[in-house]
Amino acid sequence: GDTLKAGSSQIPPIDGGSGNTNTSMTPGTAAFGMDIPSADASLFIPYCYRGDGTPTGFYCMYDQGASGGITSAYGTDIISGTGPLNTALATLTFAATAAQDTPAGEYSAIISLIATATF
Which of 10, 14, 100, 110 is the most buried (most CB within 10 A)? Predict the structure, then answer.
């Protein structure tokens, strides 16, 4: 998924697809983003997605990884590790705000997560 949509209307990614880190939600500004507020040392989470997990935390929606970011056809790693992760936990937190001129509607996003094992 890339952002929230309602018909032809959309709420854009918080960072405009740039991968800017540590972006806060600003009331009154249309934005959609994701945060992975995990303190689990066994997980590697790209800097773009490491927020503090609070309502005033940091969000982004595009990590400029080698595979082109999470909005590309092939996505990119958002969580990985070098050892067994069978007990690791991570919560994906999504947030959105609307602007005064955001058209009314029921906004939704399609998010696909693929888990790949490494041996």
Answer: 14
